[in-house]
Structure formats: C-alpha cells, structure tokens
Design brief:
It comes from Oceanithermus profundus. The protein has 43 helices and 14 strands. It is mainly alpha-helical. Helix 2 crosses helix 3 and helix 34 runs antiparallel to helix 35.
Length: 875
C-alpha cells in the first residue's frame, strides 16, 4: 500500500477521497510521529473540539485501510510509504530518470481545503522542495543529453526546469540559463528578462504575533486584484481596530510564499509623523541608496525603475497630501505594486479601495466556529478562561458587534472574570467593550476619528445614529440636512458604509454617534422627530402601492423596515395616532400578504397601548384582531373587537364585517361567514375601496364554496379577479388564482386548476408574496396527490410546509402534515407516514381545526388497515 502525493492525494487501491484525513496521513508519513494534541491543533485550529475532529479523521482512515495510522503512547505514526519518499531516494542515488517519472505533478496538487496558517505554510514548503528536487533532475538529464548531442531532449529538460523555476524559484538559476542557451531554447530571453537577478527573493514583512483567522475572501480579492487583474495599488480601508494591518501582513506573507514579485515584498510601517520624508522612508525600506542630486520622488522612481516589487504601506492616511506623488510613482515604475492600509480613502485615480468589515460571524467550514468566534476563543484562552457552554452567548456578542476584531478581543480579555452570558450583558449596546491591562482603548480610537472630521461632517455624524438598518441620501438630507459631499467625506473615512445607494453605520460607530447626539438634548429631540416624520410621510406617499402590493412599496418596506418600525413606535409613543390611522389598513394588507402576522400585530398593539380614545383605537384594534385570527387566536381577536363601534364609517364597517366573517368561517359557520362577507363587499363598494371589495368577494366565494355551491363561488372569484385586473392589483390576483384553482380542482377541472395555480405561483414568486406561495404549493400538491403523482405531491407539500412555518400559518402546517402522511402511505413508507400524521393531528388540535382532526384520524385508520392492523384502525 502506497500513499500518492505527487499530482494528486490518494491512497492507492482504496476508494477514499477525504482531503484532510489524507493530508494528515501525508504529514505523518513525511514528518514522522507526532503527538495527538499537536496534530489536532495543527489541522483543526478553529474547531470547538480539535481532538474530537482528529479522532473522527483517524477512524475514517483506519476504516478505509486498517492500520493506516497507529499509536505509540500519545504519539501517532504511519507505516505507509509515499511516492515523495521514492523521489527523495531517487535524487539521493542520482536516478534522475526515475525521479522525473515519479513526478506526476505538484505536491498535493488540486488540494481545495481550508487550512490554518502553519499547515498551509508546510504544504507550500513541500511543494517548493519537490519542485527543486525535480528541477535538479531535469537539469542533470539535460546536461547528459547535451553531451550525447541529443539537443531536442536537452531542450525539453531545460524548459521543464524553467517551468518549475517560474513557479517556485531555483537555487541554481545560472545552470538553467546555461542549459537553455546551449540547447537553443526560445525561452532563454524570457528567463533573462523575468529573472535577471539571482539572489533569493527578499521578504521583509513582519511575522504575525498570532494565528491569522478568517478573511479568506478578502485575501483572495487582494491577490486577484494585485496579481491577476493588473491592479497596481490596492488600499485596505476600514475603521480603527477592524484588522487592516493583520490582513495586510497575511497578504504580504502569501505574496512572499508564492514568489509573485521577483524583487520581493517590503513592509513599511508609517508612524504618526506626517511630516516625515516619505520617499526617503520607502527608499530605506527597499535598501536603495539615494542620489542627492535628484529630488526625492524622482530619485525614488529612478532607483525602483523596472524592479518587480510590492511595497506594503501600513497607515498611509497620515500621508494623505502625498497621494498624488504616490500615484505618479506607480505610473513611472511599471512593475511596482502598492498594498496600503488606511482609515481614509486617499482618492488617487490609480487607487483601488477594498473596504474591510468585521470578521465573518458565520462559519467558513461546517462544524467549526466562525472566524469571529474563533478569535474570541483564542483570546479568552490567553486569560485561561474556560467557557464551557457559553459559546452561544459568544456568538451573540460577535453578532452584536458585527465581528469587529478589537471589540471582540477587548470583551474576551474579561472572560476569566465573567461568564459569556454576563459579557453579553456588560458589553452590548450601548456599552462598548473596554480595555483591560493597558490594551487598546476602542472608544478613544473612535473619538479620535470623529475629532479629525471637517466641521460639516462633525455636525451631521451624531444625527446619523437615529437611523436603524441604514438609510439613503434622501433620508439623510430630509432628517439632517446632509448633502452628498458630506456623506462622501464620511464614507471616504470609513465612518459610514455605502453600498448600492444605501448607507449606514457600524454598531460601534452608531453608539459613538448616539453618545455625541445625547450631549445635545434639544437637537436630539428634533432629529428623532424629523426621522419619524420623514418615514411616515414616505410610507404615506406609497399607500396606493402598498394597497396593490407593488414592488416600489415592497422595496421601501424591505429596505427601510427598521427605520419605519422605529418611526411608527416613536409616533405611537408621542400620540401621533391621527397620522398613523390612515396607514393602518394599507400596512395590514402588507403584513397579511407577506405572512408577517406576529410582527404586524406588534406594530398595531404599540398604538393600542397608548391610544385611549375609542374612535382612534378602532382601525388599530381591527387590524390587530385580523392578524390574531390569522394566527389562530380567535378569542384574543374577539376581545380586541369588543370596543369597536360600527356604523360610523363604511370603510371601518367593511373591516368589521371582514373580521366577523373570518371568525365565523374559522369556527365552521360558513353560512354566517357568507352573510358577513356580503355586507363587507357592500360597505367596500360604498366607501369606493376596491381592495376591500375584492377581499370581501374572495372571502364570500370561499364561504359559498364551503357550503357546496361551487358555481356561485366561481362567479364571485371571477368578479374579484376582474376587479383586480382592472385596478392592477397583482398581489391580490395571486391569491385569487390560488382560490379559483382550488375550486376548479374540487370541480374536477384539473387542467384548468393546474394552469391557474401555476400562474398564481409565478406571480407570487415574482412579487415576493411569502404568505400566498405556500397555499399555491399546497393546492398543486393536492392535484398531484389526486392524480397519483405521489413523489411530486411530497415535494409540493414539503415546500408548502416550510413556507407555512415561516409565515406561522398553523392551519396550513396541520394540513400539510396530514397530506404528507397520506402521500407517504400511498408509497408504503409507513414510518414516515405515521410521523407526519402525528404531527398533523397535534397541530390541528392546537388550533382547534376539528375538521382536520377528523380527517387525520380517518387517514390514520386507513394507514393501520393497509398495514393489516384492524384493531388499531378501530381505535
């Protein structure tokens, strides 16, 4: 048995393809025995239980090939040989032909695996060593071929060595040049041009003091821009403590390892002396002697000339005024690349900015902690903290601060004194994580950034704290009088993020803004009032679109939902009930169509908690009652409706009758429900409200359908559909297509039914109608079930169940489970069928759906009979 490592990563004769266990086996084969803990932390540095992950890998390897990994005390080793061992032996014996034949490709070629810094370094070192050994073999064979006069063979070996040199570098480039020249290779000119210097590539970059975590996507972007896409200057921009320097160090180390720049990678940390001679500092870092006869920048450009070098400038914002000179330097030196870090966008034409956010709060590898959580855990270990079961609280803390590294580190420094849950309480907004033992003061860094703003930006910034979830230029102008130039200044300084027309503050900066705003009490009240007025007026401008469910209104509700909620809550607290009342019905339609019943009823109950006047309470009480009905809480809905008087306003009366009809329908009194909905349609016609009228007609058709008068129901649905088409009510049309399709299904007109339902499904998906889509899927499942397409039915019902859970449609959940049970029984999947029936019956019982409970029991009885259990069926 042999482990293949050249050109692939595989255990010969065994079908085992898991890359990390195979890499572990390779490490043991090449490096010898190692302790378990060392291996666990090397291969799974971010795992919650590294030793557990190691144990799983060992089990997998020994299952694939018994004895692949063996233990001697706490140390592990493998007896397996590798093709790399054979290559080393061939080179040592001078068996050059065998060495070349063994080289099937780079070490562990094609390995696509997330690795920690130390393991990645080992893989690259092994690839480099193997390339050097094989290049030596090609050079020896090339010279042998020259002595024989076999110039074609010599040229092949010379060019193979050159290919390895380009990828990895050689210790003997002079030999390569000689062989390329003597064999007449056309690649000689390329070699001399690209590799004129023969000394090792310099890498004057700080070694990281701690293991690098996360930033995989950002590092790949930096490499793509500077190496593959020809970008010559990339600046990492971000607020203080976000990890710009660490990311730049990791990127520079990667450039060194991969030898992207023939003349090296050089680090230059820029201190606070903005008056320092920047060209002299760069020349010193590059170890270039200056010429006093030429000005600094001209001399530097002449000295760099054609050198292929990457200069990393850490903290370049201090030299903002010299950005133009840097840009000209990049233009004059065609092989010069700059990677800079800055709190400020410098604004040069050649500069490409990459804005850094916090570390990812989602795991990059399934089963392992996210980079943000891994950073917390690593820093907590420094103070000997054992978190136990507190990882969930750590995740919450990292989420609160959006993965900001310095905030996470400061919070983790207290982990030995407080459990994780207490850290969340102490260091969540409005409380910032604070330093311990002289560590960096995050608040002081943020204050420093604020104080360095120009006056107009300092005036606007505090008020931005009142926005929640972001804002746009229109809102900033209306609420704060901020112009685009001022917002651009804040964006350039990484104090405001800007993406696709939306702007916002990082939670840390929002707390700074709110603290600054609190120092101006009169202004704070004025800004909050302006914020509430602006967003209420904005919703008022979109009332018709909200009624129709059109995209502009939906985009507003999605994009500015947090701001709208805050404005609504402030208006409710300040008693602006007369301003909110006209919005109650349009917002109810939005929440109802989107299936956001819980959220909607909280909005309306926020007003009810403060409104005392009965007339003012009515629209909010009726809206909340409707949503409670949708949630299956009929008694709660009735209590809310008790104080609402009818006969004052046709529009209000229409809503009262709508609610009463739905209460009757949910209790199985279809005749009463139909009467209420007839009156609701009449009141809606009187109030000239087409949305209320079509809703009443829809419900009336459902009630009439439930009494068995299918043709009358079809006429009501068609009347509702015609009204909706006339007024462009696409969102309501999707609901009507669903109801009409279901009716046609019951009437036996399956093809028409499926066409209607699919038309409604396309419309619901285009408009993002999360509440109606599950019902359309459910009815399509009913059609599939009736036609014997049981697998298709399972797929439809499962999708409907998922959507029903999201929108908390409890009756639909019950029906989906029952039908999933029925379809599973038809496929003779008894265990699955019984599980769904149990869940369906429990759900139907909880919401008081007697008809569904009865249907579920009948289906279960049939299931027992099908399994020849008549006694259980009778029960």
């Amino acid at each position: 048995m042999r482990l293949r490592l050249l050109g692939s990563l595989e255990l010969e004769g065994v079908r085992f393809t898991r890359p990390k266990p195979l890499l572990l086996l390779a490490y043991l084969a090449l490096e010898g025995s190692r302790e378990r803990r060392f291996l666990a932390e090397l291969f799974w540095p971010e795992a919650k239980r590294p030793l557990g992950s190691l144990s799983v890998a060992l089990t997998q390897l020994n299952k694939a090939h018994p004895g692949a990994v063996r233990a001697h005390g706490r140390r592990l080793y493998t007896p397996l040989a590798t093709d790399v061992d054979e290559l080393i032996d061939a080179v040592a014996r001078g068996a050059w032909e065998r060495a070349v034949r063994l080289y099937g490709g780079a070490f562990a070629e094609g390995l696509d695996l997330r690795m920690g810094h130390e393991l990645e370094e080992w893989v690259y070192q092994m690839r480099e060593r193997v390339a050097v050994w094989v290049a030596r073999a090609h050079l020896e064979l090339g010279h042998q071929a020259l002595h024989r006069g076999a110039f074609d063979r010599a040229r092949e070996h010379a060019e193979a060595a050159y290919g390895l040199e380009r990828a990895w570098g050689l210790s003997d480039p002079a030999t390569t040049v000689e062989l390329l020249r003597k064999s007449g290779s056309p690649l000689l000119d390329d070699f001399v041009r690209d590799h004129g210097r023969t000394e090792p590539v310099p890498c004057r970059v700080p070694r990281p003091v701690a293991r690098h975590l996360g930033r995989r996507e950002e590092l790949e972007t930096i490499e793509r821009l500077l190496v593959r896409e020809g970008q010559r200057w990339v600046t990492l921009v971000g607020l203080a403590g976000v990890g710009k320097t660490r990311t730049a160090i990791e990127a520079a180390q990667r450039f060194c390892r991969r030898r992207y720049f023939a003349d090296g990678v050089v680090w230059l940390g820029l201190d606070a002396d903005a008056g320092a001679d920047l060209p002299a500092r760069i020349a010193e870092a590059l170890q270039l002697a200056s010429d006093p006869r030429r000005p600094g920048w001209d001399d530097l450009a002449a000295r760099i000339d054609q050198r292929s070098v990457c200069i990393v400038l850490d903290g370049i914002e201090r030299f903002h005024p010299q950005a133009g000179e840097l840009a000209r330097l990049v233009v004059r030196c065609p092989n010069l690349h700059l990677l800079a870090t800055s709190r400020v966008r410098l604004g040069a034409a050649e500069e490409r900015c990459l804005y850094l956010d916090g570390l990812s709060i989602d795991p990059e590898v399934p089963g392992e902690p996210s980079p943000a959580v891994a950073l917390f855990l690593e820093r907590a270990r420094r103070v000997q903290a054992a978190l136990g079961e507190g990882v969930a609280a750590v995740e919450e803390l990292c989420r609160v601060w959006q993965g900001h590294p310095l905030a996470i580190e400061l919070a983790a420094s207290w982990a030995d004194l407080f459990p994780a849950e207490e850290l969340v309480r102490r260091f969540s907004p409005p409380h910032l994580p604070r330093p311990r033992n002289g560590e960096g003061d995050l608040e002081a860094l943020l204050e420093e950034a604020y104080e360095q703003l120009p006056p107009a930006a300092r005036r606007v910034f505090p008020g931005l704290g009142v926005f929640e979830g972001g804002f746009d230029v229109e809102a900033a102008a209306a609420v704060l009088g901020a112009d685009a130039d001022t917002l651009a200044v804040l964006s350039d300084r990484a104090l405001v993020w800007a993406r696709n027309g939306r702007l916002g503050l990082h939670p840390l900066l929002r707390q700074l803004a709110l603290r600054r705003l609190a120092r101006r009490p009169g202004e704070e009240a004025e800004v909050r009032s302006a914020h509430a007025r602006h967003y209420l007026e904005r919703v008022s401008r979109h009332v018709q679109e909200l009624n129709r469910g059109d995209e502009p209104a939906l985009a507003l509700m999605r994009g500015d939902h947090a701001n709208l909620r805050a404005a609504w809550e402030r208006a409710a607290a300040w008693g602006w009930h007369d301003r909110l009342a006209p919005l109650a019905e349009p917002l109810l339609r939005f929440f109802d169509r989107q299936g956001r019943f819980e959220e909607g009823r909280r909005w309306f109950e926020a007003v009810l908690a403060r409104a005392e006047d009965g007339a003012l309470r009515a629209p909010f009480a009726l809206a909340a009652a409707w949503l409670w009905i949708r949630l299956g809480e009929l008694e709660t809905a009735e209590r809310l409706m008790e104080g609402v008087a009818a006969g004052r306003d046709p529009a209000l009366d229409a809503r009262i009758e709508q609610n009463r009809g739905m209460l009757a329908y949910r209790r199985g009194d279809f005749t009463s429900a139909a009467e209420h909905w007839r009156r609701a349609a009449a009141y809606a016609l009187e109030s000239a409200d087409p949305w209320a009228r079509t809703a009443a007609l829809q419900n009336l058709a459902i009630a009439v359908f439930s009494t068995g008068d299918h043709e009358a129901a079809r006429r009501f649905f068609l009347e509702a559909l015609a009204t909706q088409e006339a007024h462009g009510h696409e969102a309501d049309m999707a609901k009507t297509y669903n109801n009409l399709g279901n009716l046609l299904r019951v009437m036996g007109r399956s093809d028409e039914a499926e066409r209607m339902l699919n038309q409604g499904l396309r419309l619901a998906r285009r408009l993002g109608l999360g509440q109606i889509e599950p019902f359309l899927l459910y009815n399509l499942g009913q059609l599939a079930l009736a036609s014997g397409r049981y697998e298709a039915a399972l797929g439809r019902f499962a999708a409907a169940l998922e959507g029903g859970r999201r929108s908390r449609e409890r009756v639909l959940e019950a029906s989906c489970h029952l039908n999933l049970g029925l379809a599973s029984a038809q496929l003779r999947r008894w265990v699955e069928a019984e599980r769904h029936l149990r869940q369906g019956l429990a759900a139907a019982w909880r919401v008081g759906e007697a008809a569904e409970v009865a249907r579920g029991l009948v289906v279960w009885a049939r299931l027992e009979l099908a399994q020849e259990n008549p006694r259980r069926a009778c029960r």
